Amino acid sequence: MRQQPPPPPPSPLPRNSRPLATQAVSSRAVIPPTPQPTPQLPPEHRWITPGQDVAVAKTLVKGGMLYVGTSMADAAGSNTEPALIDPTLPVDLRTPDWQGESMSYWPSYADISPRARGAYLAWLTGGRANPNAYIGYVFLYFYGLERRVLTELPHLDNAAAECSTLVAEISRLLQIYQGNSSFRGYAQALLDSAGILDPALRYDRAAPRVPEWSHELPMDLKIGLAQLAVAARPIPADWALSWYGHHPDTHLRTPAVRCADEFLELFTKRYRARFGDGMIIKPNKARLSTSYYAASRGFHGNVTLENTALPDVGKLTGPITKLRDLVEGVTSDLEAFSRYLGRNPDGASSPAAIALLPDGVTHKPSPEADALWSWAAQSIGNAGRGVVSAEELITRWPTKTGKLAKADAVAVAQLLEQRGLGIEPDVRFGGTTPTPTSSIVLFRRADRPVSAPGTEYAAALAIINLGMLVAAADGTVSEPERRALRELAIDELDLSEDERLRLDAHAALVLTKPPTPAALRRRLESLPTSRKAAVGRLLITIAAADGQVTADEIRTLERLFTTLGLDPGEVYGTLHAAATATDDLTRTEIPGERRQGRRIAANGTGAATLTLDPERLSRTRAESALVAAELAEIFADDEPLPPPSPVETASACGLDAAHTRLFHRLVEREEWSRAEFDELASNAGLLPDGALEVLNDAAYDRTDEPLCEGSDPIEINHDIVKDMLR
To answer: CB burial class (10 A; 0-12, 13-18, 19+) of residue 570?
Structure first.
């Protein structure tokens, strides 16, 4: 132990900061019926060990943990030790000063009045547990424990055993007198400091729980990390998270605090996936030390304790940098779930909440979610997919309106995905939101499901929709037509297995209600003529995909060409070329031998079915895929246009003009750094802290939720923006 030069004594707090006792303790209750003889004491002083008794002023004080003697310098070596009980000094046991009225703020046993000594000894003999005792007597006893821990304990052979006893005693006092903030602060600080003197194994237990706010690493965390480094053992996930959460340069955002259990579970899984059993850190050169500001005036301020056997790995920044990306990734993945819980504190087990949980997080038991999963699996059966009424789904989803909002449709898809199931239409893949009168297709997903469309998915979707429009012209879609359409739309494109299963499900959905020429016309009205011509060529390619074109399909193509504003006569000419020796469907002649194939009459009605050259058709598929990709957006389901940006002067929750301008700037983004927020507030002529309070007060008044969450960055709760603008 090394002690810093003693600073001047601190200024005392106002006397009324220490509450007076409200209940006196009878002196008769603490004086033994038969006083024991006073043990022989050395001429100077001695520490009464734990469990040993000592008699002072005809009073037997049990339990030890006291300094008793006639002379002992304080830790600074300038005055008498305040905690020393001098048995030669007078004690008034008849009229004890229970309220501590004769006590000075910085008490010393040698200086307090006989009446105060009587009350102090009575408190000691009464078990040192009276919750109404004057706090000055508790401090006087605490000074002795403090002196023993800080100056003598480091040099004892049995330091570990006595340290445990003293820590237990300080903890007991803290439990009783924690209502006094001054004592609570000193006692907790001494407990933290004492840990460095007794570094028993710390990492074989749960790590210190991360508080919402922390500015330094607690000593027991430092000790555990140091021991792990010295032993070259992996840092467990909970210790790594505790290290990050307590670090002064980090901050856990709202999802990590609001969803603490889910956050820890997901963090642990991803931490192990990245670091295996855990990070292994090398000991650094800095030694573990701590500074403690002593309660006793005998120390004159700070005391520094050092453990030369343990490194201070808490000073390392590299591990924190590695953990930051991991923590931020987990936090971001829990944001949607956290926002839902912010609006529905008791809704953690609802299907909507479970749908928002990222992969790897165990959800709370939910009969509603289990029922929906079971129904979906039964609807699919052994066929791999099944067509059902959307109303059956909606009745199993918690909605107040009897309809699904787009957010509900996303949640349904995510909930089904957790059990390897899918739905068409899926708004995440450009589908419409199911309505009570529509149909849906439920299907089993691939082993590796995807939650967003790939680059060629939209092209395949366009081919499926156009192909079904043409193939259903004769009232049915034959198996050869389905197979050819699948080859053109799916097999020729770079799609994942999960996307292929989804397109099969989409084709089954389209069969329940094929697209109409009128629907196609509405989608194509805004296209330029050149792109309409590309659509026409694609339609012919799709119709010819199975090698045959029926008369009904030809008539449908001619009607579609008319719808597109194209010459319907081109249908006959292009198909005629495809049935003869042309290189593609643009009627370019091929020199040499002719291919097999049937002609149709010039008016397009001379044959019931036109058989086309399969080799020529295969050469057109690559071009068809490119054309479909260019036209894919015409089959993307209509999305509602985003609402126009609110006028900056429009009032929100009755805010004044300056706060309204700030409000509209803030809701443009998901989050702002504290520096950015301060600049926005300044530009609006507002003080940042005051503006933050005004905005959140207005939000609470309207929605019972804050608009701004966190400190840096500041997260904007977009779920309540519309409510604030009403």
So the answer is: middle
Say how far apart CA 300 and CA 9 lie, in whole Å. Answer: 5
3-state SS of 185-233 is: HHHHHHHHHHHHHCCCCCCCCCCCCCCCCCCCCCHHHHHHHHHHHHCCC
How long a stretch of residues is the chain?
A: 726
**Tokens 């330091």 identify what position?**
159
Q: Would you call the peptide bond into 114 cis, given omega within 30 degrees of 0 as the criterion?
A: no
Q: Quick one: angle between helices 457-471 and 497-512, nearest 10?
A: 30
Give the DSSP letter of residue 85. B
Which residues 6+ apart lie within 8 Å of 334 measured at CB? 255, 256, 259, 262, 263, 266, 358, 361
Give the whole-angstrom CA distance, residue 116 versus residue 58: 16
Residue range 271-294, pLDDT digits in tens:
999 999 999 999 999 999 888 999
Q: Residue 444 has what DSSP assignment?
A: E
Distance CA 259, CA 239 (A): 18
Instruction: Give the pLDDT band of residue 589 (cuts 50, 70, 90).
Output: very low
pLDDT of residue 590: 28
**Lookup: tokens for 419:** 């059990």
pTM as predicted: 0.62
CA proximity to 59, closest of 129, 119, 8: 119
Distance CA 344, CA 347 (A): 5
Tell me the one-letter amino acid at 310. L
Strand partners, 609: 550
d(CA 559, CA 120): 106
The CA distance from 425 to 438, in Å, is: 10
> b or e along 362-391 (b: 16 or more beta carbons within 10 Å of the residue's beta carbon)?
ebeebeebeebbebbbebbeeeebbbbebb
* Cα(475)–Cα(668) distance, integer angstroms: 51
